[in-house]
Amino acid sequence: MEYTKQTSHGLVRLVKPSVEYQDSYIAALAELVADKNRNMSTHSDFDSETETFPEYIDRLHGYEQGNGLPEGYVPDTILWLVDDQNEWLGKISIRHELTEYLRNFGGSIGYEIRPTQRKKGYGSVLLELGLQVAKDLNLEEIIITCDSPNIASKRIIEKNGGQFLEELDEPGSDVSKRRYVLEID
User: Does residue 179 sit within a domain?
Assistant: First the structure.
């Protein structure tokens, strides 16, 4: 199935990670590394010191099957949001199951938009398309979290139907998490 959406900036689509997007991804990763507000896990980031880009792509594809996961991680489908020029805009991770920690603090879905592409509506589109993928993966209830001060992420979640559950203090963190549930029809 293809996951696409027309936006005011052009057509965007979710794609499996591929070497085809290497240059754009590496440029976006440099932006993300420089972003002081970054709060995503880096288990799915490329590290040129330890692997080639094709090895990195293979690693991501393995995660979907549960292969090579870091300890404590669960299988997830990682997809990239690209525009009609094949520019890497962001990524989404859809976890196939939840641990107790993920249920409370990490959620079923994590997403990230590259800094130069923020405030253009891509976050909402990314989550909307990701929810379609989650439905196709037969996930019925999605738990999604965001840092309490992250107003942009709060808006994205609520725009996509997220129902606020509670706010929790994450152990070892000075930032609380807002928890939401999204029902998939």
Answer: no
146 in a domain, yes or no?
A: no
79 within some domain: yes
Task: Report CA torsion sign: 64, 62, 144, 46.
Answer: negative
Sheet containing strand 176-183, edge to edge, reads: 141-147, 176-183, 163-169
Residue type, 21: Y
Q: Give me the helix-helix angle, 151-159 and 122-136, nearest 10°.
A: 50
Going by the DSSP 8-state scheme, the letter that residue 168 receives in this structure is E
How far apart, in whole angstroms, are the C-alpha atoms of residue 108 and residue 97? 7
pLDDT tens for residues 100-151?
A: 999 999 999 999 999 999 999 999 999 999 999 999 999 988 999 999 999 9
Sequence-distant (6+) residues with CB within 8 A of 140 are 183, 184
C-alpha 111/C-alpha 69 separation (Å) is 18
